[in-house]
Amino acid sequence: MEPKQIKRLSFALLLTLGVAGAAHAGGTGVAYVTSQDGSGVTVIDLDTLEVSAKLDTGAKGSRGLGVTANGKWLVTANKDEGNISIIDTSGSTPPRFVTIGKNPEFVRVHGDKAYVTYEPSSKSGPPPKPGTPEAKDDDAEEALPGHIAIVDLKKAKIVKDITGKPETEGVEFSKDGRKMIVTNESDNSITVHDMKSGRLLKTIPVGSYGERPRGIKTSPDGKTVVTTLEYADKMLVMNDKFEVVKEVPTGKTPYGVSFDRKGERVFVAANKEKVLQVFDAKTFGKIKDIPTGERCWHFTFTPDDRQILLACGKSNEVVVIDADALEVTKRIPVPDMPWGVVAYPKSMGSLDRP
Fold first, then answer.
1. SS3 of 166, please?
2. Hey, where are the domains in the chain?
3. Spatial separation of the C-alpha atoms in residues 77 and 265, rounded to whole Å
4. Mean pLDDT over all residues of the chain?
5. N or C: which terminus of the chain has fewer CB atoms within 10 Å of its end residue's CB?
C-alpha cells in the first residue's frame, strides 16, 4: 500500500473512531474548539464534559469555526495557511481546502454556505494600542479593505467575494436572513449588506462611541443588535433599523457577545477583565460578573442551554459555567491557545446560533 493511501486510511480510521464516535456519544452533543497556536480541533463530549477526540484540520492556526445544521461539515479558518478547512465529521473523507486570502478569521455557516472574513494585512493578532508607534506603522495596512468570502460548502468553492471596510471582523445575520451585518475593526464601523448580492446597504460609524467593534449578535426576536467595542470597554445596543439606542459600560476589552436562547440575558466576554459578564437584555443592567481565565474571547451554550463553554486562550482551557447558577463548574485543559468554540447541535454563542 502506498504511503498516501496509508495516511488517508489512518486519517479516516482516526476520525471515525474519535470524532464520529464523540458526535454520537449521547443526547447532549459535542463542542468543537480551535487552537490558534496549534493544529486540529479539540472535541469535547458534552455528556461527560471531557475531551473525547482531536479532529485533524490539515492546517495550522485555526481560529474561527462553524458547523452545518445537520452536523455533517465543520469549517475552520486557518490563519497560517490563508484558507479554510471543510471537514467531514463522519470521517469518511479527508478535509477539503479553499484558499481564502490573508488572515481569515471569523466564520459563520448559514445553510450550505460559509461566510468568512479575511484581512489583506500581513499581520495578525491583537491590534496595537492607539497612539503607539506600532499603531502608526499599521495605519497604511489598516487602510486596505477587508473582505467577506462566501464559500459554497458542497462545491468547496468561493461563489462571491465582497469587498468590505478595513479589518472585517465579526459576522451576523438579520432574523429574516436577508441581511448580513459585519463589524469592521480598524474602520470603527458596522456595515449591513444584502445577503444575496453582497451589496452595501448601510454603514454605521461607531467611532464617536469608541474604537474596535468586534463581536456582533442579533437578539432571538430580531429587534435588537449588540456589538462590543474592544477599546472603549463598551457594548452598543442598536434597534432593527441599526440605530444606536444605548451605550452599556463593560469590563476591559470586551469581545465575544451573545444573547441566550430566550433573549432574556446578554453575555459578554471581557478579556482583560477576566470575566464573563451577564446583563439583562431589556434594561441592560448588569446581573453578574463571572470570574473566568486568561484571554477568553469566545463561548457557546450547550444545546440544552444548561452550560456555557468559554475558550480561554492564555490559560489554555475551556471554562464550563452553569448557565442558571452563573458559576464556574469545571475547567477543561485545551492546549495551544484555544480561540473559538461552537456546539453541535447548533447553539447560541458568540460564533454561532441555532
1. strand
2. 3-344
3. 29
4. 90
5. N
Q: What are the pLDDT digits (tens) for 299-347?
A: 999 999 999 999 999 999 999 999 999 999 999 999 999 999 999 999 9
Percent of the chain at pLDDT above 70?
86
Question: Residue 14 has what pLDDT?
Answer: 41
Tell me the one-letter amino acid at 323. Answer: A
What nine digits make up the cell of 44? 469535547
Question: In Å, how far from its chain's centre is CA 325?
Answer: 25
SS3 198: coil
Quote the CA–CA distance of 352 and 67 in Å, as a whole number.
Answer: 8
Hey, what amino acid is at 101? G
Helix (H) or strand (E) holding 192: strand 189-194
Cα–Cα distance, 193 to 68 (Å, whole number): 22
- pLDDT (0 to 100) of residue 67: 98
> Which superfamily does CATH assign the domain made up of 3-344 to?
YVTN repeat-like/Quinoprotein amine dehydrogenase (2.130.10.10)
Q: How far apart are CA 227 and CA 235, in angstroms?
A: 6
State the cell numbers at 101: 486570502
Identify the pLDDT of residue 141: 58
Average pLDDT over residues 151-165: 96
Please name the residues in contact with 229: beta carbons below 8 A apart, sequence gap of 6 or more.
206, 209, 210, 211, 212, 213, 214, 235, 236, 254
Closest CA to 32 of 4, 62, 1, 5: 62
State the Cα–Cα distance between residues 46 and 302, nearest whole angstrom.
7
Are the beta carbons of 53 and 80 closer than 8 angstroms?
no
pLDDT for 293 equals 97
The helix/strand/coil state of 351 is coil
Q: For residues 55 and 113, give the distance between their C-alpha atoms in angstroms, rounded to a whole number.
A: 21
pLDDT surpasses 60 at 11: no
Residue 11: beta bridge partners?
Answer: none
